Amino acid sequence: MKDNKPLKRIKELIPFSKDHHHGLLLCWKIRTGLKKGLAIERLSDYTLWFYQNYLAPHFALEEIYVFPILGMEHVLIQKACKDHQQIESIMAQLNIETLAELADLLEAHIRFEEREVFGQIQELATEKQLAAIRQIHNDDAFIEHADTFWK
Questions:
Q1: Which among 29, 70, 113, 148 is least buried, having the fewest CB atoms inside 10 angstroms?
Q2: Would you say residue 147 lies in a domain?
Q3: Phi and psi torsions of 74, nearest 5°
Q4: Angle between helix 75-91 and helix 96-112 axes, rounded to 10 deg
Q5: What is the pLDDT of residue 1?
């Protein structure tokens, strides 16, 4: 039987995990929009808005402050950065096929970071590194886009 206990997160990584939660909701919203047959422009507009306002800044914070804790050459970090680049590439060419691909890739990426990358970081981070993370990631409330097409 699979163990589905919630993952324990140190307080410095909780804002990143909250970002991940919103990323998983994006995946659900994309899939819901595709099932409803929404216009590609509407789905693309929302997805690009989310990427520009939340996902791209999240990736930048991870790459500058969080990933160096393991080292940018670490195999887990190499995979995470490759995923970031792949997601960025998909964002540049959104269409019906790439939206579905994006939802699958983003969900897998978030689960990978939560289950593997963050676990390692929690074990290895120094107090100085954790202090730096505390300084850079505030826990601002997520502000939703005006178009709530999934409701």
A1: 148
A2: no
A3: -60, 140
A4: 160
A5: 43
Structure tokens at 34: 């595709």
Distances (CA, A) of 12 to 1, 49, 85, 129, 148: 31, 26, 25, 10, 30
Provide the domain limits for residue 43. Answer: 14-136
Tokens encoding 53: 């306002």
Count of the separate structural domains present in the chain: 1
AA identity, residue 149: F
* SS3 state of residue 55: helix
- C-alpha to C-alpha distance for 25 and 54, rounded to whole angstroms: 12
Q: Which of 80, 91, 98 is nearest to 53 (CA)?
A: 91
Residue 3 lies in a domain: no
H or E, element range at 108: helix 96-112
In this structure, the chain runs to a length of 151
Question: 0.70 cut: is pTM over it?
Answer: yes
pLDDT per residue over 78-130, tens digit each? 999 999 999 999 999 999 899 999 999 999 999 999 999 999 999 999 999 99
